[in-house]
Amino acid sequence: MSRLANKPLVLPKGVTLQVHPDFMEVKGPKKTVKIKLHPEIIVTSEGSNVFVKSEKGNQKVLLGTVWANLRNTFVGVSEGFKRHLVLVGVGYRVQIQGHKLNLTLGFSHPVVYDLPKEVTAESPSQTEIVLSSHDNQLLGQVAAEIREWRMPECYKGKGIKFLGEVIHLKEVKKK
Questions:
Q1: How far apart are alpha carbons 134 and 119 in whole angstroms?
Q2: Is the same domain home to 66 and 87?
Q3: Of 45, 61, 65, 83, which is the most buried if we count CB atoms within 10 A?
Q4: What is the pTM of this model?
């Protein structure tokens, strides 16, 4: 059983929670999200505290997951999540055209990536991408799919990496 699920979740300011029998509705300044509940998980709200409980012993393994998903939803609808990607390499650049990313990554053709409607992208410079969304899981998935086009390699350090990620360069072979 999760130790975190024993602690109450605190609703951020501006976020409201409505618990229905089979789903919850979380409203915040950025988005309104509906979360489907497992039938044996009980979510109760007392003021600004939210408690996650289970009366059956075999469903206690889900408590930590439900608790973490709720916390991520509260943060997502109030503040949102961001992922920063950096393109490292000669000629690597990005252009944002509506909900499409036009990436030049050293291939013979440009790579066009269609963003989901819940994810927005900004490009402060030609080699940076800032992705933002209310859904942390979807945001991580999109960042991983973009990064998959050119993973950072260990000899020159070229590729798409997360901001702050350190690529340890290997030494080339010597004769």
A1: 8
A2: no
A3: 83
A4: 0.85
